[in-house]
Design a protein that fits this description.
The structure holds 3 protein chains of 3 kinds.
Chain A lengths: L1 H4 L5 H4 L3 H29 L2 E6 L2 E7 L3 H6 L9 H32 L8 H13 L2 H11 L5 H8 L13 H30 L2 H9 L4 H29 L3 H6 L13 H10 L4 H31 L9
Antiparallel strand pairs in A: 1-2
Helix pairs in contact in A: 3-14, 5-9, 5-11, 6-9, 9-11, 11-14, 13-14
Chain B lengths: L1 H40 L4 H5 L10 H10 L5 H32 L5 H11 L4 H14 L7 H4 L6 H14 L2 H9 L4 H12 L1 H16 L3 H6 L8 H9 L8 H28 L9
Helix pairs in contact in B: 1-14, 3-14, 4-8, 4-11, 9-10, 11-14, 13-14
Chain C lengths: L1 H22 L10 H4 L22 H5 L4 E6 L3 H9 L7 E6 L6 H11 L10 E7 L3 H5 L20 H6 L9 E3 L4 E7 H8 L4 H7 L3 H13 L5 E3 L4 H5 L17 H16 L2 E4 L4 H5 L9 E4 L1 H7 L1 H4 L9 E4 L5 E2 L3 E4 L7 H13 L1 H11 L6 H9 L13 H8 L12 H16 L5 H15 L7
Parallel strand pairs in C: 1-2, 1-3, 6-7
Antiparallel strand pairs in C: 3-11, 4-11, 5-8, 5-9, 5-10
The chains are: A mainly alpha, B mainly alpha, C alpha/beta.
Chain lengths: 323, 287, 466
């Protein structure tokens, strides 16, 4: 939060500009309150009620206090706490996809913006790596489903190459399913992240790189001493949104596993779990409780990442516009 | 000595380039493969698709194209136009107002500033599934079905886009510029529209692309709000083809439509990505 | 960039206006519909058969007192096609189709909101008829959102199949809708494989050899010996068992219970999987579809007319398929699969027209005949079907000339609709998905059932699981 602590641009004038601040953020808040806040507050409020539909019959809302939360964290008859299991799944799926996603994107962003490398065909590569993001998740999952089915092309290739002698049911095995979901998320989002980071690097004053070059800094030095610190705010953004996106992971595993999180619910994410409550019975009580937990977890993690990363980089050599 | 270093430098550069190209080509193949599959599938009839996947195209491309294009119940050009209008409006509103909000919070010092920032950061964490059902019910009550406004207006408040703009401003906006504009007697709106927005061009373009794409591919909320045939968007039409009854069910047509649906977004992407690359070099001041 | 933004903002304005404008005709949807809804095209040539339904001869004046807009909710256009061909919409009424795809549960979500809002909706926005499938029909039939059609003038069920009426009846026997088709499901077998395994491919003889589960299971072992699979999906026989349950999924106290039929299916599938009599693929999987090719090794499939006519594409493939090498018989137990019902929502402002439509599709013999001869449907009119069953020239080339209508007509009397609940669709689906993991060997049975119970708890809070 270093920017918050920065001194006002000029003490005297700062005060008279405050009204502009309110004016500028007004449209956002009006739209937010009208379209999103009301349903969201209802959700939080609903988590304290028994409130669902049994067929077309509405049950509740009856106030039940924290009963929904207690239910959420009580173990089933084999001792597993569903919520924790799905939280674990989500984190694993996210890490498998997001870590490579950010690292690869960072690497590519550097490639593309590197003055020294001066790569040819950039426009082509930039277009191609973003293309998977253009396919609807549903269509993308459909393609992967055919690709890896027991009689799909992957098995055909492996069989004809003699590497396996019986086709593998990839979608029934925990590790392959998780890897596939991560691979799909990676493919869908690494281009997106690359573009974000590239835009960030493009925003950095070119003279900083030139100066470093003149000082005889190596590429690695330039990257760690100039690019990374100056890119920090965007990188923080990338990490936090990747984290939120990861915690809210839904469409790819939902479609690939036909909403069941197979095998053994090891690819069931938290939002899929939430969706189970919502989809058929409109169980606002339990869905509300899951959302609140998800919200607390995401907010905690994000604030932690935001504060620690922002602080770390505010100690690095500051950029040109430091006031 | 100098020569040697030069040679070593050149070798390093060649190695670096080779590695870079190798990585890029590998990733490109991965990315293109799904497109290849999509194209292959769009050349096959429903029966051929049912028979299993192959890497070789069949000869049904134009039949599928014709079937998809002339389907009596789905009007592809109309759907694309609808989707385009919604996505264009959404992406403009979302980027403009997010930048405005981000600028407001970044530059001005006011009492609720910190609160506003953390508030937006916090609501970003609430999964969208949570408010979707409530939102639909609200729109039903307000009789806003078969209307594009509920699909467009909420995009004014996009926490994620705001957050990006805020972070971007933090890394590129020199306060001197704002100060200088004020010295010249510029009105605050003028400063934002004429001086700050051009600096943010890459960020605007990036978020415009992203919001365009996500609006273009949005299915669930539009499916529940739009039921007039002439107002439906592309994803609803695709879903409709997918839930067609057994006698009309034709996956070849579905794949063809998915392929067609990608083209407009691809064009928008290519146009907008130019302004990311051009970047700010022209507009920025050196500190 | 600036210009682009300005341009797009201008677009926003124009567009917002258009959007507002576009909502205006919603009150008067006449504009949009001619292309889709009016009966003008096509019908006169085919001789408008809707006039003078047997139940009630509704004079045009009565209809003029009704709503001007008839809203039909559906998830696809199957019925819309039949409706436009075979039903003449009364003068002055516009039919408005509200078609929402079933993907992601969007159809039921949309329909539920509309039905729950029915009392407050303007007359022209009220749901006047909606479509539902067997899998979830009770959710609507058992609710107050639907009404008694006998009070609207649909009273003659003498020719419809009993189970289609039972399916649309609430627990007190009040009928709330009709089906325009009947979907008895048969055992579809490969003649050549049956010849090899059973020594005969004659439908009557094959039926005699497979008319009970004991015989069916025994033959599975013989088939295996000869190198064949009995079925190609672990869930192939599920419907055959579940349609004949003797108790509902939940008891009076909302406890989940397994019917002996379901237990029998689990036992049979365990046996089939362990002995290699079946594949572990799902009913719609590629792996199963591959078995329909000429070089497939599977003897038995189960399905209604729509299944072998439209979904066995691999079997009909001109190069790799084996059209004509198939035949059908009733199999171990009578059952049905699929079918679309037309339901009458409470509060419709077009009750006469609604009744008229229903009568047309179950009692108008001309229309029902067309459904069989032109649309490959098995109609919901016994008299009409009997006509085709007795026609010696009627037969299916795919089934080697066998008269499928005759087989289906004979077996429909044995189909029962009993012991269903509003939860059936997702309980059946969930049980199959989670047990599939057990059959594939990924998890043990206990875990599979535990996952199923968790799924039930999440999906239906009202059900108590063990």
């Amino acid at each position: 939060m270093h920017s918050m602590n920065r001194k006002k641009p000029s003490a005297g004038k700062g005060v008279s500009y405050a009204k502009w601040g309110y004016l500028f953020i007004l449209p956002f808040f009006i739209a937010y309150i009208c379209f999103t806040l009301i349903p969201q507050l209802m959700t939080f409020y609903n988590s304290l009620f028994e409130n669902y539909r049994d067929g077309l019959t509405q049950v509740g809302p009856n106030f039940v206090g924290l009963k929904n939360y207690v239910k959420l964290f009580s173990p089933d008859n084999s001792g597993t706490i569903g919520m924790l299991k799905y939280f674990g799944n989500t984190i694993v799926l996210w890490l498998l996809g997001a870590v490579p996603q950010i690292l690869v994107a960072l690497l590519l962003a550097v490639f593309f913006t590197s003055y020294r490398l001066n790569l040819k065909g950039q426009q082509f590569f930039k277009t191609v790596i973003y293309m998977p993001n253009l396919i609807m998740a549903a269509a993308f999952s459909m393609l992967f489903f055919t690709l890896f089915s027991p009689v799909g092309p992957v098995n055909q290739v492996l069989l004809s190459a003699g590497w396996i002698d019986k086709s593998i049911d990839f979608l029934a095995l925990k590790v392959p399913v998780r890897l596939l979901i991560s691979l799909m998320n990676f493919l869908m989002w690494f281009g997106n992240t690359t573009i974000l980071l590239m835009a960030g690097i493009q925003g950095i004053d070119q003279s900083m790189f030139e100066a470093a070059e003149i000082d005889g800094a190596s590429s690695l030095q330039v990257f760690f001493r100039v690019t990374l610190p100056l890119l920090a705010p965007i990188l923080v953004y990338t990490i936090i949104t990747a984290m939120i996106g990861g915690l809210q992971m839904f469409d790819v595993p939902q479609i690939l596993t036909n909403a069941k999180g197979t095998p053994d619910r090891t690819s069931m994410t938290m939002v899929m779990y939430l969706n189970n409550y919502l989809q058929t019975s409109k169980n606002y009580g339990m869905a509300g409780a899951v959302s609140v937990v998800l919200f607390i977890v995401s907010a905690g993690l994000s604030l932690f990442v935001y504060n620690s990363l922002s602080r770390q980089y505010s100690q690095a050599p500051r950029r040109r516009n430091r006031l | 000595m100098n020569n040697k270093e030069n040679t070593r430098g050149r070798i390093q550069l060649i190695v670096a380039r080779t590695v870079a190209y190798a990585i890029l080509i590998f990733l490109s193949i991965l990315c293109l493969f799904s497109f290849y599959m999509l194209i292959i599938n769009s050349t096959r009839s429903n029966a051929q698709l049912q028979a299993g996947f192959t890497l070789m195209p069949n000869n049904n491309f134009f039949v599928n194209l014709k079937n998809a294009w002339t389907d009596a119940s789905i009007n592809i050009p109309r759907g694309m136009l609808n989707s385009f209008l919604i996505a264009a409006c959404t992406s403009v509103l979302t980027t403009y107002f997010s930048a405005l909000t981000a600028y407001g919070i970044h530059v001005y010092r006011f009492k609720l500033r910190k609160f506003a920032f953390y508030f937006i950061l916090a609501v970003m964490m609430i999964p969208p599934q949570v408010s979707a059902v409530g939102f639909i019910q609200l729109m039903y009550k307000l009789k806003l079905t078969n209307n594009y406004l509920p699909l467009i207006l909420p995009s004014i408040a996009a926490p994620v886009v705001f957050f990006y703009m805020k972070q971007y401003l933090e890394s590129v906006l020199p306060m001197e510029m704002v100060e200088a504009a004020r010295m010249d007697g510029a009105n605050e709106f003028y400063t934002f529209n004429r001086i700050v927005l051009p600096i943010m061009k890459p960020a605007l373009a990036v978020q415009m692309i992203f919001s365009f794409v996500s609006s273009w591919n949005n299915y669930f909320i539009p499916a529940l709000l739009l039921d007039k045939a002439e107002m439906k968007t592309v994803p609803i039409m695709i879903a409709q083809l997918r839930s067609a009854d057994y006698s009309k069910f034709d996956m070849g047509k579905v794949y063809m439509f998915i392929l067609l649906a990608i083209l407009p977004v691809l064009i928008v992407y290519i146009i907008l990505s130019k302004s990311i690359i051009k970047g700010v070099t022209a507009g920025s001041v050196k500190g | 960039m600036k210009k682009l933004i300005a341009l797009l903002l201008a677009l926003v304005m124009v567009f917002a206006l258009c959007a507002c404008g576009a909502t205006a005709p919603a009150e008067k949807p006449a504009e949009g519909t001619p292309a889709e809804g009016t009966p003008a095209e096509g019908t006169p040539a085919e001789g408008t058969p809707a006039e003078g339904t047997p139940a009630e001869n509704t004079p045009a004046e009565a209809e003029s007192g009704e709503g001007k807009v008839f809203n039909i909710y559906a998830w696809n256009e199957e019925f819309k096609g039949f409706f436009e061909k075979y039903y003449t919409v009364p003068e002055g009424v516009t039919v408005n189709w509200v078609i929402t795809p079933s993907d992601n549960g969007a159809y039921q979500q949309k329909l539920d909101e509309a039905l729950l809002n029915q009392a407050n909706a303007a007359d022209d926005d009220k749901v006047d008829m909606f479509l539902a499938e067997a899998d979830y029909i009770l959710k609507y039939v058992n609710a107050d959102a639907t009404q008694d059609i006998t009070k609207l003038g649909v009273t003659d069920f003498s020719n419809t199949y009993a189970y289609t009426v039972q399916a649309a009846s609430d627990p007190d026997g009040v009928v709330k809708g009709v089906s325009f088709q009947c979907c008895p499901s048969a055992l579809i077998y490969r003649r050549s494989i049956a010849e090899d395994v059973l020594g005969t491919s004659d439908p009557a003889e094959v039926q005699a050899l497979l008319d009970s589960w004991d015989k069916f299971n025994a033959v599975a072992a013989d088939a295996k010996e000869k190198g064949y699979y009995m079925t190609a999906s672990f869930a192939e026989t599920y419907r055959v068992f579940s349609n004949n349950c003797t108790s509902p999924w939940v008891d009076a106290d909302s406890n989940l219970q397994f019917d002996p039929q379901i237990e029998a299916w689990i036992a049979q599938t365990e046996d089939f999987v362990n002995n290699g009599y079946t594949l572990t693929a799902g009913v719609w999987d590629q792996e199963k579809n591959d078995q329909m090719f000429a070089d497939g090794k599977t003897m038995c499939f189960f399905g209604p007319a729509w299944y072998f006519n439209f979904c066995m594409g691999n079997a009909q493939d001109p190069d790799k398929g084996c059209s004509g090498d198939w035949a059908i018989c009733e199999g171990p137990a009578a059952h049905f699969w699929g079918g679309t019902w037309l339901l009458a929502p409470a509060g419709t402002d077009n009750p006469t027209m609604l009744a008229d439509i229903m009568n047309t599709f179950i009692n108008n013999e001309e229309v029902c005949s067309k459904l069989v001869s032109d649309e490959k449907q098995f109609s919901n009119n016994q008299k009409v079907n009997a006509k085709f069953a007795e026609d010696p020239n009627y037969g299916s080339a795919f089934l080697g000339g066998q008269n499928d209508v005759a087989v289906f007509s004979a077996m429909t009397d044995n189909i029962v609709w009993e012991n269903h609940t509003i939860y059936d669709q997702l309980l059946n689906e969930g049980l199959q998905t989670y047990l599939q993991e057990y059959f594939k060997g990924t998890v043990d049975k206990e875990t599979a059932l535990k996952n199923f119970y968790n799924y039930v708890n999440e999906t239906y809070p009202a059900i108590v699981t063990p």
